[in-house]
Amino acid sequence: MIECVLESGIFKTILKGAICLVSEMRFRFDSEGLHARAVDPANVAMVIIEVPSSEFEAYRIDKDEVVIGVDVNRLYDTSRAFRSGELVDIFTEDSKLTVRCGNIKYSVDLIDPAAIRKESKIPSLELPAKIVLDAGEFKKALEFAWKVADVVELQSSEDGFLVEAEGDIDSIQYEVGDAEAIELNKSEAKSLFGLEYLREFCKVAGNGEVLTIKLGTNYPARFAFDVCDGRAKVEYVLAPRIETE
Amino acid sequence: MIECVLESGIFKTILKGAICLVSEMRFRFDSEGLHARAVDPANVAMVIIEVPSSEFEAYRIDKDEVVIGVDVNRLYDTSRAFRSGELVDIFTEDSKLTVRCGNIKYSVDLIDPAAIRKESKIPSLELPAKIVLDAGEFKKALEFAWKVADVVELQSSEDGFLVEAEGDIDSIQYEVGDAEAIELNKSEAKSLFGLEYLREFCKVAGNGEVLTIKLGTNYPARFAFDVCDGRAKVEYVLAPRIETE
Amino acid sequence: MIECVLESGIFKTILKGAICLVSEMRFRFDSEGLHARAVDPANVAMVIIEVPSSEFEAYRIDKDEVVIGVDVNRLYDTSRAFRSGELVDIFTEDSKLTVRCGNIKYSVDLIDPAAIRKESKIPSLELPAKIVLDAGEFKKALEFAWKVADVVELQSSEDGFLVEAEGDIDSIQYEVGDAEAIELNKSEAKSLFGLEYLREFCKVAGNGEVLTIKLGTNYPARFAFDVCDGRAKVEYVLAPRIETE
């Protein structure tokens, strides 16, 4: 049994972070808070969601750990219309998940957690390069890249951070230097990624929200969004595309 | 012969109220004003439009009653671009209806009223429950309901007014209590309605405009919109859906 | 070789002016500035683009005349996202055209100018009527006309300027008199034009920008847009439609 209260902005954001990869997800509630993790059907990307129990307005579970299976698509579709700033009551009852926000009460059948693909472990990755920037800036770079290709190269070097895409007859480079970035450690690293994944990831964050990228060379990278003023975390791990030339 | 002048906002609103049910309509002008009434092709809903002659800036008819057949779709499509607050000259001449607003003069062939389906009588209905609320609030409730089903139950009781929809695996309830409503008589009543009709009806009104619902049990209901600061009336009568369980 | 700098607003506007007629275009740079001209595949309309060299922030060419072939569609598609007011570096190198604006560098293969249809001469036209008006006003008139037909009659007379369209059962007239126009010489002239062309032309200009129309009778007309505060010129010549009655 779960009985908790969360600000609607956080509630909507974590669901939005989930739906770009999966439609059903296992939510794990323990004394530390809500944890969720899932890999997309193509095994290319993982999403990791964390909301500490201290960020809930109320947080009560009847066991040390409660795991529920949630249809995140339906839940997001309804909750996106919740007014921001309002509180959402979230509780389970009779194998249903119910959320209540303002005048609205929405109930949906829970999914047997065993029927949902098990979370993989979070891979431990050695990623030399670190880039911290406004998520809106990264989004803009991706939109330019998208005009010429569906794969993008992310590159860190002493010159800064470079987003690069090559089409058949045109190419684009978007440079993020010290002036634009929040932090650049300028370690050498370079990998290719599918743009469709990256563009989906960025939907979770608005302009002004902080994104931390950790990058290696021909290696998976991490994209951690500090959403809702840092009150929740939505992070993605994305496998690289292999260059075929 | 008709020669009258009406504020463009009222003109656009009554046409918008008509087009959700029919594309051609009989407009009846008499000493009291403009009256129009039509039933949709499926015989499920009726629209009733009234603009008192006193709300026209000028109003002249050459007989006690003038009935014209109007292609409301075309007329709405053109007039929706009229600037709000301007005056519209409306006149008939040579079996054409002409409207003039600002720099624009639009003429369209009149339709023989005899070729348009005759108005049915307004049914006399005993409807115990009365709910008066902001049309925007009702619209929001319908949008939530639409996420889970295409039929909605409207229910009045001593607890207030409830908009409820049931999907296969989820359900939604939107409660309108004393705090949200303008008036609730709290009589017992409960009927199911097609959401597509209700959502169409609501297009005629903006947030802040007043909607009066009169409701029975498994019975047609009335939805009266007080549009344009009460200067015109657009009302719908909708047959209930029969519950099949 | 070209090396020049142009404000992004002008750069985007001339590309927008081009793409409504062609996807590839010859740009001619000489001591006076940038000149471009093209006829659409149907031979109905010509676009003429001029940016004086004095409107560039920097302007350097290595020959008296440099002609390049440009994929205007791709270039516009990328540059439309450039922030207005920024400067765009434009240069050719290794048979590529490169534009740099803010953090973005975009390169695209040049097209062999010989592979692009040669510009026709600008026809010399005796056009008695002159109409100068807000491009936004003309746009509005066209949108109304579009509701009833795909051909429009433009008419100048001592009564002013009239935009008129006839459908099968309806018709529309949009009158521009002395109060609405900037200048009307009121000479007699009247021609029919395809609305799709005119609507495309108008996309290049915003509300408040000045459009000068020169009109004859059953004769091509000129539509000159004074874009970017008059710093660049985008002009169209459009062949008339022949009335078939």
What do these coordinates show?
- The structure is a homotrimer of 245-residue chains.
- The first copy, chain A, has 2 domains: 2-115, Proliferating Cell Nuclear Antigen (Box), CATH 3.70.10; 129-238, Proliferating Cell Nuclear Antigen, CATH 3.70.10.
- The first copy, chain A, has helices at 8-19, 72-79, 135-146, 195-202; strands at 2-7, 24-30, 33-39, 45-52, 58-61, 65-71, 87-93, 96-101, 104-109, 129-134, 151-157, 160-166, 170-176, 183-184, 189-194, 210-215, 221-227, 232-238.
- The first copy, chain A, has a 9-stranded antiparallel β-sheet. A 5-stranded antiparallel β-sheet of chain A has the order 5-1-7-8-9.
- In chain A, α1 (8-19) packs across α2 and α3 packs antiparallel against α4 (195-202).
- The model of chain A has no long low-confidence stretch (mean pLDDT 95).
- The first copy, chain A, has 4 helices and 18 strands.
- The relative contact order of chain A is 0.18.
- Chain A starts with a strand and ends in a 7-residue tail after the last strand.
- With 245 residues, the first copy, chain A, is α+β, with helices and mostly antiparallel strands.
- Chain A is elongated and about 60 Å long.
- Helices cover 16% and strands 46% of the residues of chain A.
- Chains in contact: A-B, A-C, B-C.
- Chain A binds chain B through residues 71, 74, 77-78, 81, 103-109, and chain B through 140-141, 143-144, 147-148, 169-177, 180.
- β9 of chain A pairs antiparallel with β13 (170-176) of chain B, so a sheet runs across the interface.
